[in-house]
Amino acid sequence: MFEARALSDRVDAVREARTPDVQVLDCDRDFETLTPALAEDLGLLVDALEPATYPTAWLPDDAPTLLTRYASSDLTIGMPGDGSVVWTRQTDPPIVLVKPRVEGSPESFVDFLIAEALVQVDLEVPEHFIGFFEGAYPDLDAAVALDPNGTYQVAAALYDGWVGLQTREVFADWHDEHPELADAWQDAGTRLEDRVSELPRAVARGDTEFADATELACAAIKHAIELPAPFAALDTDAYLDHGPAYAIQWAEKTFDSLED
Question: Where are the domains of the chain?
Fold first, then answer.
């Protein structure tokens, strides 16, 4: 299921500089969430496994089943929305997993995704949005006027945006040391610009669901793209500094305005 991935020189340079102990592994099948049995196969490749657990009080009563399982004592790696490259600190040493779905993507972009994961591990941000919102997640659930899956998507997006505020500062410094990775970061952002600028109109026309729009806008934060309202309020130092409390306040104001 897992095999050590041969890294390009530019990605290996990032790993050596920031997270020299991290293992980067290829997976032989795609997944959203690894089952506990498959996740435990990683035990053959690492020194220790320590499943993350979260208090049940942090979850609303109607939380999606996968989120409830993730918060339990089961060893769960990867969740819906995590993308093609995932990382975890539930192993010692930490690992980065590259899914087969990256096949066909430009090599430079795949390198960027792996390097991004290494940076996130180094920044020691929470592994999942439940570790970001903690006991305030039910407050976000109350503020977001969507079904549980929609709320999950918005929460994951908001967390992604908060992380992006931190990682983009690292990426912006790569032009001298890692120019190929910096170019891939900028190119990915350029491809998003038109889609992001059209989000308010797409939501107003009903072409895009609000949760999808939030996901795209928050994904753009790490690329330093100018965001339209109401998402521009997330591209701020205030969000970086106040995190969950700011995100909940943003959700309350945004959904109140959508209902008017």
Answer: 2-259
